[in-house]
Amino acid sequence: PLYNKMGNEITSIAPSQIQPIESYFAGEDRVTGVESLSSTRFFKTVRGTYKGGGEVVTKVLAKYDIPLQLEKQYEQTLNELKQKLSVIPNALAYVEFWETEKAAYLLRQHVRYNLYDRLSTRPLLSNIEKKWIAFQLLRALDDGWYRKVSHGDIKSENVLLTGWNWAFLTDYAPFKPTELPLDDPGDYDFYYDTARRRTTYIAPERFIDPSERLPNPNAKLDPGMDIFSLGCVIAEMFSDGRQVFDLSELLEYKRGHTPDMPFKSIRDDDVRALLKMMLQLDPSQRAAASVCLTARTFPNYFQDFLHMYMKNFTYGVDGEFVNPDQRIQNIKTKLNTILRAIAPHTEQSDRESGYGDGLVIVLSAVTSQVRALQLTSSKMQVLEMMRIIAQHIRDEFILDRIIPFVMCLVNDTMTTVRAEAIRTLSFCLAMVRKIPKSDVNLFQDYILPGLSTIPEDIEVTVRIALAECIADLAESSHRFLEIGLHDASQTADDDYEILGSYDSELSILRTQVARAVSSLLSDQDNTVKKTLMRSLKKLCHFFGFQQANDVLLGHTITYLNDKGDWQLHKVFFECIVDLVAFLGWPAVCLVEPLLLQGLCDPEESVISTVIDAITSMCGKKLFNLPKLLEFVDHVVPFLLHPNIWIRYAAVGFVSKTACELGEIDSACFLEPKLEPFLTKPLMDFTNSLLLLSVVKPPLLRNIYDSVLKTGRKVDLREFFDILSERQSVRNLTRPGYDVMYPSVPAKYGQVLHKLQTLKMDAKQEDALLDLHHVAMKIYNSRLFVSDTQVTGVVDLDTCGVQGNCVSLSTVEEQWFKEPNEMAVPVSVPVDNKLKTQQVGSMNEDFDEWNLMFSDSPSKKNRTHSVMGRSGAAGSVPPRRTLSTIPSRKLSKIPDGIAALDIEHNLPSVDLRSGRKSISSKKSRHKRSKSDTSATSFGRELFTMEGRVTQVVQLESSCSEDLEIMMQRKIRTYSEIQRAKEDCRPRIESFFNIPEWHGESSPQANTIKLVSHLQEHKSAINKIRINKDESLFATFSNDSTFKLWPATKLDGQPFILKAKHSQKLDGKVKSGVFCNNSQNIAAATTEGIVQMFSIAKKSSIYNFKELDLNKDDYVVDMNCVDTLSAQNIICCATSLGKLHGFDIRTKKPIWELKQSYDKGLLTAMTVDPHQCWVATGTSRGYHLIWDMRFHLPIKIWQYTDGNLVGPVYSMSPHPRLPHILMAAEEGNNEVTMWNMETGMKKQMLWGVSQAPPFQRSTKDCQHTSVRAICSGFIKTEPFVFTGGSDRKVRLWNLCHPEQSTLLVMPNGSPDRDTIFRHQVIEGIAVIAEAQSPRVLGNKSAPSELPRGVPHIDMIDDLVVIKRGQYPYLISGAHNGELKIWR
């Protein structure tokens, strides 16, 4: 040892000159930028930058002109020590040693904190963190002794800590003396008291009494010596940094005078027991490190899980450097495993018991990486993990360990991070119930000032997030203040002073929150206003009466001035009730005229909401009797409104009013007002269903809309007067006699004739008269809105032109619609006084339109083109009338507007040159330049079927603009199509869209049955595939669902057994993989929805929050959130409800309802892009929901003549996002619907006995498709179908002739099946047909051997890819499961 080499020489030397620390590194290139950390006579410690990068600590031993040669003597010892410590995860060795003439150097990695400094740094270490550090140090000693390595100088300065509390034992001292003289502290001061703290943690037996013997320079370190030193460090840590022994106290302890000194300030009994084992005066009685590790002090998960996990977090699994983003990703991936290991059963009520405190260690690992993160996704994951961990830890940890980092992310540069940080802040603060005295003013001093800039943030999503959370934050701030008041009142003597402090602090809080709320209420973006409006109730209770009236009511009533945003009006009336109920009568008087104004809003959804608001206010007894009866007068006419939601709302209001009035007042005041609207007298108006059954039939929608549109042509007041006269005549006419109506002016006669063509009879006239006050107000309201807004609509009525009008702002979009969907810009009536001539058909022009804009592959084979010199189309689609404007009104038409109304079999018009197109191809190619010399508004006259029409051609300037617009749109369309093709592979990778990798589509003689499974005893309702296609699940009527391994699919026949089978109560109708396919949810006909862990094979949650009705159950379910998370499940119930359930919070997040008259819900499908959900009903209705706004956007009904059948299955189109595929009742028919228009685009007809659209064969009417599965063959879309005829068909949508029948049941006719493509009534149809088999060809292979296909109806199909083979899995009604390759 160094002590043996030099004796007292080096300890007693006095340097002749003190050198600066930089002088020892002059000429050294290993370490640069040195900075002194400490300086003693023995070692000088500096921090610098290593030549390879990174900060290092260097220990410098100055030679002071003593001729020492240390490198040869210690190089081998240090290298061996380095090698042994390199495999100990909690040890940090010297990695380099060198010597110069001036000094000797030891170099190691720099770590920011040592234990001594960390004990006084906030946030202070918790009890569980101290135990975690002690556990790691004991592991370091145990691992070191296993490799025969001792430390010799363990003290808090030699324990290093990372930001995530990973502990390192460093500065091993094999060169320091083991035994020291008892009567001479010089050696101890020189070698061990380097920090000058006078702290002495050396084992007592190392001090030798010279009177007995001299210290042995060659004495070896004993493991018990390090145990004693570590025990002192642990005692100091649990004593909040107070030293355990100085030199004199240690010597007293050696003599046995103060045996309890190390434990006097430690309260934890388990820690005291551990220290008693480690600090025994007799070395032989001290416990070994391995024994200490098993003490009750440390939770079991330290040894079983946490130490290995945090080791991998620190060093990486393979020992390679892991950047912060990767570390966060690793924690997020394994967070569920961490929760199960550390806090498996922690509930919200157990947080304060400390059962989940171990998660603070993981939380430190998460927060330590926050400032170094680069990826936005990593920051979002950090915030998500904070919310999860906050549900398991105590309130003090939320305040100290989470809130500061969330506030840091509130000011992040990324918009999404700032918004999510605000939501996380609100969520975490709402959980806090125990508040330290030091944090009572947390909101006034820290939270609210930190959020003060958010209302002015340039990104609207951030302001929306604040609007969502500001009420919860205000509520939390009030709770903090009240808890602080309660705690202070327990110790204060003067309650008056406490109350005064409370009032002043509350006033400060309200002022700060009011500043933010006022800014949000006056935000330029209405979405912010709508979001904040939904929190009015909480804000009212926070602000109190005066500020709620000044801040909230004063701002919100101005929202009705924005006439362009009906959704803002709707939200206003939805939320104003709570505000009015809080403020009372003064607010009622202010809001009453606004409610009356809302009853004539142009948007019917707003009217329904206003009536609901009036009903709610009536239930809260906010109206006196006169005012209530006034509202009855205004609302009762809505009982005849064509909108069903308005009628339901009006019925609800009447029922609630009757409840408030009582029987006597209802008979006196309410019954006379209702009598004109009822078909029969009613005694009890409180029963809404009974009232609804006796209300007169409503006014027809087309009549109502036509009357409102007529208001621009005639005076509605005069028109209603005419209807009133007609009603009087009808009332005076005796029964059995014809009604003799008086004559009316011609323009009103035309209106009456038009309404009568819309099925307006006498009863509808009476309903219209009952509703005429409402119609007049709504018409005036719409007129005001249209006059005050610029919508891009050119109204020809204002120019004196008779006819229908459409928006010119949509004309450009219509050029890219399909031919049968093309809308014509403007239509005007026909001038019957003009001469006529016959012209040809426009069928060829319709073909040209298809050639230019259709996505059909057949357009590439056309030989003719409509591309003129500009490359734009010159024709318009058929089925319209081509009309003109009378010459006397031409001057009133704005420049560049063409009046066109095209009807079937009329010629097309070249919009660029002003020519009509000729039906003959030959004449089209022979056009001369003289044809283009048409006048600016030249006319061509022609006749067709006795109709006289006139064409008004475009001006040359309009033609040029149209040409430019067409070229731009064609380029845009091409770019969009290319972009869709480019992104399709990425979409497939996210949504598991099947893709067939063969050169062509599979044929009947190539498909092969590889497995037949019969574990299910009843119908298989659904088959689902997990995310990585390693598992698939089947859900059956036999009350079970089963999990099957897909990894055994290798292309050869095999026997497959279910990996797991789960029994439930009731028939299992559907299920879905969720939570990144770690869990699976299943639903039964008993109304039960349960989620199961795939790994544990046990139920982990029951969806009781769905609260289904007694007769309701989930018929289908799917995930509707982000591309990969699978955390939000959409459950569709038989009674027409869609429930959105978040499995992370275990709460329903939205609920959508459809009316009962549409039938029971039978099918559902989800858009792969998560934008919409489609549902089908037993009455043939198709309903599309916009999942971004949770609103129904389109509904239509499929009928077969007078027959209405159910929708059995639905699926998105594999390529076109706006096309929905649906299987309806009969004829194996699959219809492809355009969801934008509700029109048919294409049809798959799977019956060869009857031609398409004919239902002559009775057997065919009962064969229906029950399962649809779509995907791609290379880049071409295909569809698999299976159903009640037990056949599986493959439909090739690009090459219909390549469609094939893959699987046929036994007993099928001995015929070949072919598929033909044809266009019928403008709809593309791929139809199955039969042709006789070639006679005498006995060697032709049979399509499928008998006994192989299904013997019962096919209920579901899926395609799964394993290796190079795609597999088709089919489930039948008898429980059979077949796998085909």
Task: List the main descriptive attributes of the protein structure presented here.
six-stranded mixed sheet, single chain, 19% strand, alpha+beta, elongated
Description:
- With 1381 residues, the chain is α+β, with helices and mostly antiparallel strands.
- The protein contains 37 helices and 48 strands.
- A hairpin with a 3-residue loop joins strand 31 (1172-1177) and strand 32.
- The longest helix is centred in the C-terminal third of the chain and has 36 residues, at 956-991.
- The protein is elongated.
- Mean pLDDT is 79; it is low at 1-9, 492-499, 790-796, 798-956, 983-993 and 1334-1347.
Number of strands: 48
Q: Structural class, from secondary structure content?
A: alpha+beta
Biggest sheet, spatial arrangement of strands: 36-37-38-39-45-44
β-sheet strand percentage: 15-25%
Tell me the Rg in angstroms: 42 Å
From the N-terminal CA to the C-terminal CA, the straight-line distance is: 77 Å
Number of helices: 37
Characterize the biggest β-sheet.
Answer: 6 strands, mixed
Uncertain segments: 1-9, 492-499, 790-796, 798-956, 983-993, 1334-1347
Shape: elongated
Oligomer: single chain
Helix content: 25-40%
Mean pLDDT equals 79
